[in-house]
TrEMBL record:
Key words, A-Z: Metal-binding, Repeat, Zinc
InterPro entries: C1-like_sf, DC1, DC1-like_CT, PKC_DAG/PE, Vacuole_Formation_Reg
Any one Gene Ontology molecular-function term assigned to this protein's record: metal ion binding
Coiled coil: none
UniProt-listed PANTHER family: CHP-RICH ZINC FINGER PROTEIN-LIKE, CYSTEINE/HISTIDINE-RICH C1 DOMAIN FAMILY PROTEIN
Domain Phorbol-ester/DAG-type: 21-67
Official protein name in the record: Phorbol-ester/DAG-type domain-containing protein
Highest taxon of source: Eukaryota
Record-linked SUPFAM superfamilies: Cysteine-rich domain
Length: 570
């Protein structure tokens, strides 16, 4: 708040100073100075009761004009802040300027009052960055910094070897870990001869500039600024620390040729080759997708099932989706603290109920195992250049569905963008509209019109859709992949309720107890406390309102449903 205000014992009587229009009363306070923005405990200063203006005594009594060693022209005191054309930073310390500023309008040179009181130009010995003493060039100049960015500013200079560097780049860490690479990478202010591309943004890296480089994999190079991005680096400098090998925990132990003990389940799992029978109704507990013809492990005691590939998921994972190591957490038992509950995937933003990777450092990150299966370079059939990368954390419009997505994969050749929800669409799925498998078609030119077999709406052939290669059946993506596709069948814990996702295969689709509309999602509906719920939106309303009865449908709706079941016409 305002801090501690009390009269100053050493200050003089109230007076008018050039820096302010009102009478200033001597006082001591422990708040930010309006002039220099610094806080000094019980510092003598001046306070204006009319406009809550407070300033240190030494700032208030600053001379109106000074000559400073850092600049060749006189500097005049401004008490209304830096001019609008300046970058509003002190040319010596780089901090944001307050209201009191010494400024040269000829050179656009500014100092805060603290630096103006210092007579020496800053210079430092910083062996982590350079072997010689570095001196601040107190002048706004454009120069080639080691980071490769030609940003105007006041650089630190080595007069012995003509080395120049930004103040921020000077303090960059020497040795870091990033989750995109298995080894540590070290900072170098000169990469050396060769042709390189940054392994984060995938753009060209000038060999005459600096970067982070792996000593084990010499072709692995990252821009200085890319490697230290907040979404890439965990903020720890490992310089001087021994490199430790991360302990690998096996996800399962082999009991015999066809039997394993998986860490996520209390019973043994038996291997099944698959391929003979299509297990469409059997869902994997990890990815929540049907088993189909794929090899899988199944518990002989209960209904727990894992695809063979899902059974081999690493328990610890370094992935480009997060800057910390991720830990695999099963989602199998609603009675446990971290049990079978729905979670919102950080990458694809979809509600999921399978296994998830969570941050080992307690960040609020939960990533579905399907999204962690997408790794760089990602080869996708929707794009002719195939290789897609996670180059930035900026939200963009997906080139497949047209929706703005927070986490996207990019093509560095043409700028094509693909969201994680589209990148993780199952390539092969089954649907009741066709007896064959449906595959994703990523758009094609067509003279005629396509129609969805599920909703009978028009399908835009230029957009992605599901199709049967044998029957030429076409379906909207949303009619095949619904809101409940990645929710495992069976009982789950939602708030204090027990809920179950069941197939929406009734002769007449039931009414949602919240919106009073028919449940249109063909992938399933929620059955909770004897009621049907059509979507996650209605589910949130149900839990939030603590409903105990559902509203009965109207007489017209009941007659319509009875007529539909028995084939009558009303």
């Amino acid at each position: 708040m305002w801090g501690i205000f009390k009269p100053s014992h050493g200050a003089s009587k109230p007076q008018i100073l050039p820096i302010h229009d009102h009478i200033l009363k001597p006082s001591s306070f422990s708040v930010d100075c309006t002039g220099c923005s610094e806080t000094k405990n019980d510092a003598d200063g001046y306070f204006c009761f009319e406009c809550n203006f407070y300033v240190h005594k030494e700032c208030a009594e600053s001379p109106l004009e000074i000559n400073h060693r850092s600049h060749s022209h006189p500097l005049k005191l401004r008490w209304c802040g830096p001019p609008g054309y300046s970058d509003k930073r002190c040319c010596l310390c780089g901090e944001t300027l307050g209201l009191l500023v010494y400024h040269c309008s000829t050179c656009n040179f500014s100092l805060d009052t603290a630096c103006a009181r210092k007579h020496e130009i800053p210079s430092i010995d910083y062996p982590k960055a350079h072997e010689h003493r570095l001196h601040l060039l107190a002048k706004r100049v454009s120069f080639p910094c080691a980071c490769g960015e030609d940003v105007p500013g006041a650089p630190y200079v080595c007069h012995q070897c003509n080395f120049m560097i930004h103040r921020d780049c000077l303090l960059l860490p020497r040795v870091i870990y990033i989750t995109r690479h298995k080894h540590r990478i070290s900072r170098r202010y000169f990469i050396g001869p060769g042709k390189f591309s940054c392994k984060v943004c995938r753009l060209e890296l000038d060999c005459m500039c600096g970067g982070y480089r792996c000593s084990t994999c010499p072709d692995y190079v990252v821009h200085l600024r890319c490697a230290t991005r907040d979404d890439v680096w965990d903020g720890i400098d490992h310089y001087g620390k021994p490199e430790e090998e991360e302990e690998i925990e096996k996800p399962s132990e082999v009991v015999d040729d066809n039997l394993i003990k998986h860490f996520s389940h209390e019973h043994y799992l038996k291997f099944n080759e698959g391929g003979l029978v299509c297990h469409e109704a059997t869902h994997c507990s990890a990815c929540a997708l049907p088993v189909y013809y794929y090899p899988y492990y199944k518990c002989s005691v209960c209904d727990f099932v894992l695809h063979k590939t899902c059974a081999g998921l690493a328990r610890k994972l370094r992935h480009e989706l997060h800057k910390h190591t991720l830990t695999l957490r099963p989602n199998t038992n609603p009675d446990e603290e971290h049990g079978y509950n729905l979670f919102n995937c950080t990458a694809c933003q979809q509600l999921c109920s399978g296994f998830k990777y969570v941050c080992s450092k307690s960040c609020d990150v939960q990533i579905d195992v399907r999204c962690t299966s997408v790794k760089e370079p990602f080869n996708h059939g929707s794009h002719p250049h195939h290789k897609l990368y996670l180059t930035s954390s900026e939200a963009k419009f997906c080139g497949a569905c047209g929706v703005k997505t927070s986490t996207v994969l990019n093509c560095v050749d043409c700028g094509f963008v693909l969201g994680y929800d589209c990148a993780t669409l199952p390539n092969k799925v089954k649907h009741k509209c066709d007896r064959h498998f449906l595959s994703v078609c990523y758009g094609e030119e067509a003279s005629g019109k396509y129609w969805c077999e599920a909703c009978e709406g028009e399908v835009q052939p230029s957009r992605r859709f599901y199709t049967c290669e044998d029957c030429s059946t076409t379906l909207h993506i949303k009619c095949v992949i619904g809101e409940f596709t990645f929710w495992r069948p069976g009982t789950m814990a939602i708030s204090r309720y027990e809920a179950e996702v069941i197939p929406n295969d009734f002769p007449s689709r039931p009414y949602c107890c919240m919106c009073q509309l028919r449940c249109e999602d063909t992938t399933g509906i929620i059955y909770i406390s004897g009621k049907y719920i059509c979507s996650s939106t209605c589910l949130k309303k149900f839990v939030g309102r603590n409903i105990t009865h559902s509203k009965l449908p109207s007489l017209e709706q009941m007659l319509s449903e009875i007529s539909y079941i028995f084939g009558f016409v009303t």
